[in-house]
Design a protein that fits this description.
This protein is an alpha+beta fold and about 90 residues long. It has two helices and three strands.
Length: about 90
Amino acid sequence: MKARVFVTLKPSVFDPQGRTIVEALHSLGHSKVGDVRQGKYFELDLDTESASEAEALATEVSRTVLANPVIESFRLQLVDVDPESKAGHS
């Protein structure tokens, strides 16, 4: 099982990197872009027996390691991986 973790700054936290990106986009003529919020993406390979166990583990890892709960929030997406899809193809 895989978990995709998307970590972003909370809406109340100023995002200087996102602001820099939106200003660059405006200078390039993309004036219809109103705002940009940047974030981080993680993909976890989980060796768990069930989806509920995978979700609990990914939540714990995200809460304690991947995201700073004071300024960031996260969302998870579980992906069930077919064992045959892991086999190498020539």
